[in-house]
Amino acid sequence: MKEYERKGLLERVNREAATVGAEIPEEIEVQGEPIELRSFVFEIKRRDSVPQGERDRVERAKRNLRRERLERLEPIEENEVSYDEGEALAASIIGIDRALDALEGLDAPDPETEAKRQETADRKRWMSFLKKALGHEEAGGGRTRF
């Protein structure tokens, strides 16, 4: 593979928006073991939240996917493959990145929920400040009307 081709592949897999429009591979071999990656990601994402027992499984899958990504990237970085093999590796790396993006975003709340949570927290801090400033803080933690 020519140097400019290698650099192009590396730029492609490391591009911030590389996963936009990319599909999660149906099946992928990770450390010699075939994994039905797409169905795993969709199964996990289908739930509103990930149960504690599943979190360990998801974290293990993310570690294995990151490791596999590095193993697939190395032959491109070291120029040990042909351009066609590099293309196939790059496409699989982008698919792995797409799956990782989906799995990383599981615990993040949607923006609307996060905004409401932040607004509630701000309101509580403001009320606490006002109570202290006006000397109306109660020991029992009950509500004080102004």
Fraction in helix: 55-70%
Class from helix and strand fractions: mainly alpha
Tell me the total number of β-strands. Answer: 2
Principal-axes geometry comes out as: elongated
Compute the gyration radius: what is it? 24 Å
Instruction: Output the strand order for the largest sheet.
Output: 1-2
- Unreliable spans: none
Describe the secondary-structure layout.
Layout: H1 3-14, E1 28-30, E2 33-35, H2 37-46, H3 52-77, H4 83-104, H5 111-134
Antiparallel strand pairs: 1-2
Helix pairs in contact: 1-4, 3-4
How would you describe this structure to a colleague?
By secondary structure, this protein is mostly helical. It is 64% helix and 4% strand. The protein contains 5 helices and 2 strands, in the order H-E-E-H-H-H-H. The chain has helices at 3-14, 37-46, 52-77, 83-104, 111-134; strands at 28-30, 33-35. Strands 1-2 form a two-stranded antiparallel ribbon. Strand 1 and strand 2 form a beta hairpin. Helix 1 (3-14) runs parallel beside helix 4 (83-104) and helix 3 runs antiparallel to helix 4 (83-104). The longest helix is centred in the middle third of the chain and has 26 residues, at 52-77. The radius of gyration is 24 Å and the shape is elongated. The model has no long low-confidence stretch (mean pLDDT 82).
